[in-house]
């Protein structure tokens, strides 16, 4: 059905997540969706320009080519590089010591919405985490991924249908950023999005674009397919602890 364009990219990804055992009922196996754009700074979003899209054939940790060298070195000089203790020699080498989808990442994105707010506070020993580490800006989150090969969070489905998670409708005191002293409130959007609803509309449109339809299978190979393990995963720089 997907190949014949009878179901949308969104529906296909939801079904793949379900078949893979991912579910909204388990934060540790929450549905995972890809970052699909790389342009969060332009005034207008041109979906006819391939340059605005993320390279879906690469894991998010090496979408920025500069990170690939670091990631390869980590794999080769595994224990020395990471000061990693494995006295029994039981742990296989890996490119990334964290994961593209985990419970903390889900709470990170959904911090403004209950019950995730309370779960986040419980995780942080009874208080909100430091403001600078919170999800406060979509452009800044993307930039952090580009700068740091150890940050490999992909997205959650809410980025394509749920504008409310981008607003601090409950008025939580999320603190202020250390450098700019800016108070963390609603999530800062890309320049091309005029409201949370506009962001969701354009982001969903991007997901269903011709470019993503033609390349989505490359990301699926990494997350759900043959590049998850073995030689293909090593070659694709896609081995996780």
Automatic annotation (TrEMBL):
According to the UniProt entry, its GO molecular function terms are: protein kinase binding
Q: Which ranges carry the BEACH domain?
A: 1-241
Q: Does the keyword Nuclease apply?
A: no
> Would the keyword Cell membrane turn up in this protein's UniProt record?
no
One GO cellular component, as annotated: cytosol
Q: Which SUPFAM superfamilies match?
A: BEACH domain
List UniProt keywords, sorted A-Z: WD repeat
Residue ranges of the TM segments: none
GO terms for biological process, alphabetical: intracellular protein localization
Superkingdom field: Eukaryota
Q: What is this protein called?
A: NBEL1 protein
| Gene that encodes it | Nbeal1_0
């Amino acid at each position: 059905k997907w190949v014949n364009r009878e179901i949308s990219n969104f529906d296909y990804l939801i079904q793949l997540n379900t078949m893979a055992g991912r579910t909204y009922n388990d934060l540790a196996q929450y549905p995972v969706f890809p970052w699909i754009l790389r342009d969060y700074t332009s005034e207008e979003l041109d979906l006819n320009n391939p340059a605005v899209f993320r390279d879906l054939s690469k894991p998010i940790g090496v979408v920025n080519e500069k990170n690939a060298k670091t990631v390869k070195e980590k794999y080769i000089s595994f224990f020395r590089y990471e000061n990693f203790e494995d006295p029994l020699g039981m742990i296989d080498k890996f490119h990334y010591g964290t994961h593209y989808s985990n419970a903390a990442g889900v709470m990170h994105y959904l911090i403004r919405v209950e019950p995730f707010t309370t779960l986040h506070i419980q995780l942080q020993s009874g208080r909100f985490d430091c403001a600078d580490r919170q999800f406060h800006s979509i452009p800044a989150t993307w930039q952090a991924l580009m700068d740091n090969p150890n940050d490999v969070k992909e997205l959650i489905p809410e980025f394509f249908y749920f504008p409310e998670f981008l607003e601090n409708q409950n008025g939580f005191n999320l603190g202020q950023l250390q450098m700019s002293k800016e108070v963390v409130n609603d999530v800062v959007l890309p320049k091309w999005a005029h409201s949370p609803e506009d962001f969701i509309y354009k982001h969903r449109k991007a997901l269903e674009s011709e470019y993503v339809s033609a390349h989505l299978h490359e990301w699926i190979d990494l997350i759900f397919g043959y590049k998850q393990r073995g030689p293909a995963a090593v070659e694709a720089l896609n081995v996780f602890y």
